Amino acid sequence: MVADTKLYDVLGISPTASQDEIKKAYRKAALKNHPDKNKDNPSAGEKFKECSQAYEILQDPEKRKLYDQVGLDEFLNGGRGAPPGAGGAGGMPGGFAGGVPGGFGGMPGMGGSGTRSFHFSTGGPGGGGGFLFSNPESIFADFFKQGGAGMGDDEDIFAQFTGGSAGGGGGERSRYRDSGVGRRRARTPEVTTVEKPLPLTLEELFKGTKKKMKIKRKTYDDGSGKRKVEDKILDIEIKPGYKAGTKIKFQGVGDQEEGGTQDLHFIVQEKPHELYKREDANLRMFVELDLKEALTGWTRTIPTIEGKKFTLSKSGPTGPGFTETYPHQGMPISKKPNERGDMIVEVKVKFPTSLTVAQKSHLKDIL
């Protein structure tokens, strides 16, 4: 049993409502009555104050518990007359102080005992021992900055009323009052970034390509507010010349969480290639010769990554580490589409692991 139901009545909920139900009710009432949406209806502004400040009390478990125990009048007076153990200075949990200037009267239809009725006020100096509400706009901003209970496109909704996004802008968003509880509101966690590898072949990185990636993301149902998983298809464009480590960024496509929606970054990874080793924009290819070829001459057909073929030959001795460079036959340079790196062919010589006595003798005679 609660001492009174005035705050619950403002939000149109039962005293047994859960925290999620309180958030949903506030969200609905605040969006309906926001002053920016009702410029020709002054009474809507009052309702906006009432629902915002009712939410400020009910969303805090300690404040809600005390309100349920002592009722609104005692709560606003600093908890005088509250049951023993309610705690804090003047019986308020955490020791609320500050006073409520202007009184709490004048709201039609919300009368309590006697002739006193329920009304909200937001600022100015006042008598000690009472409760000082935050600015209703700040309550509203804080609610949506923290994801609005995860019940929809909160950044877009917030922008309708502030002229900015939920991540910055309007001056009202930064005016959070301490309310005398000895602590300030916790900072909203920053939205996280999820990184996923994107393995690609060297041919894909040479030509460029487009890929469709199906991801699963956790969101909240707009109607029920419950967590759900949905599929999303992302179109990923890989430009010619991208390197390993290149990040392809998508904003706001990941899971919905407190503070907003995750960003997703795909990080390019190069798959190993059977012929080429990439060195920035250059490609290196290795040709292996046996000792006889290295000494007497050799010929090889050299393929390029785009399918061209060159013939490379040497008639005389070729030492290990010999290189031949083919200009502009390497990888494209992503920031300079008309330029390419080189292809470098490097010789490796395979020496025999053993020689007979006769072979050694012949080699001595020859060399």
Please describe what this structure looks like.
It is rod-shaped, with a radius of gyration of 36 Å. The chain contains nine helices and 15 strands. It has a four-stranded mixed β-sheet. A three-stranded mixed β-sheet has the order 1-7-4. Strands 2-3 form a two-stranded antiparallel ribbon. The chain is of the alpha+beta class and 367 residues long. The N and C termini lie far apart (108 Å).
What are the key terms here?
367 residues; three-stranded mixed sheet; 15 strands; alpha+beta; four-stranded mixed sheet
The SSE string, one letter per element, is HHHHHHEHEEEEEEEEHEEEEEEH
Low-confidence stretches: 82-128, 149-160, 162-186
Principal-axes geometry comes out as rod-shaped
Strand order of the largest sheet: 8-9-15-12
Short description:
By secondary structure, this protein is an alpha+beta fold. The protein has helices spanning 6-11, 19-33, 42-58, 61-76, 136-145, 154-162, 202-207, 291-296, 357-366; strands at 193-200, 209-220, 227-238, 247-250, 256-257, 260-261, 263-270, 276-279, 282-290, 298-303, 309-314, 323-326, 332-333, 336-340, 343-350.
List the helices and strands and how they pair.
Elements: H1 6-11, H2 19-33, H3 42-58, H4 61-76, H5 136-145, H6 154-162, E1 193-200, H7 202-207, E2 209-220, E3 227-238, E4 247-250, E5 256-257, E6 260-261, E7 263-270, E8 276-279, E9 282-290, H8 291-296, E10 298-303, E11 309-314, E12 323-326, E13 332-333, E14 336-340, E15 343-350, H9 357-366
Parallel strand pairs: 1-7, 9-15
Antiparallel strand pairs: 2-3, 4-7, 5-6, 8-9, 10-11, 12-15, 13-14
